[in-house]
Amino acid sequence: MSAFFSALGAGFVFGIGLWLSGMANPQKVLGFLDITGAWDASLMLVMGGAVAVTAVAFRLVLKRPAPLFEKRFFIPLLRSIDFPLLAGAALFGIGWGIGGYCPGPALTALSSLSAETIVFVIAMIAGGLLQRLLFPKVSA
Amino acid sequence: MHDFTPISALIGGALIGLASVWLLAANGRIAGVSSILHGMFTLREPQWRAWFIAGLLFAGLAWQGFGGAVPQREGFPLGWVAAAGLLVGFGTRMGGGCTSGHGVCGLGRLSVRSLAAVVTFMATGMISAYGMRHVLGVAS
User: Fold this and answer.
1) B92 chain-A contacts, CB cut-off 8 A
2) At how many degrees (to 10) do helices B78-95 and B112-130 cross?
């Protein structure tokens, strides 16, 4: 049970970070992605601030034998730079640039129950299922 | 430079990083929101994923409850929102991650594979945002 409350707390802090940083505002995200307009570089600092924390702390955490509430760490083992990775990332980027939403911000913004967040999240889930259905073997 | 908000971007980013460290240290999991979401629908240990997503939603409610700004955009066609959602869902499933999994966590682990994904989705995201605004002229 403590593992579930821990996941809840991590999701909560993650979500507050998304709101505070401006990531949950799709127009701010598009103001960053559109480098030809009145470019807003803020989101570069969001990624910079986040990676500065993970790059240092992940090393320390992974020196421990196991996480607090599980028997082991679940770390991706894939290292290859292959077609599914690049094609998938390219398609994701196109969708991100259209709407200004990536998955985390879309989910935390869903709490506003605006028409656009509801449509986006349903379509995002459908897109994932479609990928699984059409190309069950082509995924990273 | 337009709407540049470096302080809230850095603090928000650091919170996102801290939440990712928390999920790894306590639950042994990578805070990749797209993988957390897609995994729920393949029923791969759905409970902790659901708790994390509930945390994201609670963060949105708390943010609004404490009077945080929730920008609404008007007149952005829902058809484009749906297309964006489909691409984001399909692409993140195929490429095995999004801004959080490949970005915040992958870069934090110094993964070259994740770096390749980040460079790819940033590039297509910028091209797509440019195309939407300046070629197709869709207001966002």
Assistant:
1) 88, 92, 103, 128
2) 160
